[in-house]
Design brief:
Elements: H1 2-16, H2 18-28, H3 32-53, H4 62-86, H5 91-112, H6 120-134, H7 147-172, H8 179-214, H9 221-225, H10 247-286, H11 291-314, H12 320-337
Helix pairs in contact: 1-10, 1-11, 2-10, 3-8, 3-10, 4-7, 4-8, 5-7, 5-11, 6-11, 6-12, 8-10, 11-12
């Protein structure tokens, strides 16, 4: 039973991490460079945390290393496709495909390949949880109907499902390293990927700006801070850019960059603690809880906690559909625990 409590605690951690993301995006935006920078730093912090938790020891396993790289690649692809998807269509549909994929793919994997048995309550709970995920779609008066948008949503369905399934594969196979070491390894690879993508996007944007504006000027700290795109909607317009004699404006811009770096590091650290602890508890539970129960519990719990925290922290309104969604998701989660 303790592992079911770990899954509920993991759901709370996953349901809380959006607050760190919101705070980060408020000052850094939602560009690919900003997303990569965030992944780089939270991955680095999480790696340090779990490296220390494993006794400053990191065992080598080809099996674990391959899965860690695969998971990191899936995570990067999910982020890139997700950014494009959100720019094209409805967030409710996006969330529906993401959460259904993270639940259904490992559920099917558990039934077909791990030969896990499912009972009547599992089926009822699954139907309720799918219903809870579908409800927000009907809360919008206008739905996007672009073919590419739905193709990207289908890709997200399988990418997010693959991420959950690969973590399950590692835990049920005896060739891997310990849970804490694998978690550290995973976040370490994610951090490396994040830093590489961040630097590439910054250099590419700098190169494009250089040809049009400033020739071959070197890459600056401001370029790295904004993912290579120093002109954001939060910065001053061209006419207010500081001159040599405008020391006050220069100081203000330096303070703004410093504030962004502090926000980046604090938000990345908070996300590392929340996402890292949630991932670790999920990985530990994977050895003892069937995939047909583990991932529906995570999905339902995350849905409930994120909605409640959104109301408490950001005064988000509870519509009738939102209340129905929380109630159905809560009931479904309880059925999977029984």
């Amino acid at each position: 039973m303790i592992y079911y409590f770990l899954l509920i605690a993991a759901s709370l951690a996953f349901g809380s991490q959006f607050m760190a993301v919101k705070a980060y995006e408020k000052t850094n935006g939602q560009t690919i460079g900003a997303s990569a920078r965030f992944s780089a730093f939270y991955g680095m912090f999480a790696f340090v945390i779990f490296f220390c938790a494993s006794g400053c020891r990191l065992s080598w396993s080809a099996f674990s290393s391959v899965l860690a790289v695969l998971l990191a690649c899936v995570g990067v692809a999910c982020n890139m496709v997700g950014l494009k998807t959100l720019s094209m269509g409805d967030i409710a549909v996006y969330s529906l495909f993401m959460m259904l994929g993270g639940m259904m793919v490992p559920f099917v994997y558990g039934v077909l390949f791990l030969h896990e048995k499912i009972g009547v309550w599992n089926v009822v709970g699954l139907i309720l949880l799918v219903s809870a995920l579908v409800l927000p779609v009907f809360d919008k008066k206008k739905q996007k109907g672009r073919v590419l948008f739905y193709l990207l949503c289908i890709a997200l369905f399988f990418l997010n499902g693959m991420s959950s399934t690969l973590s399950k594969v590692h835990q049920v196979d005896g060739r891997g390293v310990s849970s804490s070491e694998f978690t550290a390894m995973l976040f370490g690879v994610q951090s490396v990927f994040g830093f590489c993508i961040w630097l590439i996007t910054a250099c590419m944007q700098k190169s494009r700006r250089g040809k049009a504006e400033i020739g071959s000027a070197p890459l600056t700290g401001a370029d790295l801070q904004t993912g290579g795109n120093c002109r954001t909607e939060r910065e001053e317009p061209p006419e207010s850019i500081a001159t040599e004699g405008d020391e006050n404006t220069v100081d203000e811009r330096k303070k703004e960059r410093k504030r962004r770096w502090i926000t980046t590091l604090l938000c990345a650290l908070a996300f590392a603690v929340l996402n890292g602890s949630g991932t670790f508890m999920q990985v530990v539970s994977a050895k003892h809880v069937a995939a047909t129960a583990q991932f529906p519990i995570i999905t339902g719990g995350t849905l409930v906690f994120s909605a409640v925290l959104g109301r408490l922290m950001y005064r988000e309104k509870f519509t009738k559909l939102k209340i129905a969604q929380i109630a159905v998701a809560f009931a479904a989660t309880i059925l999977f625990i029984l």
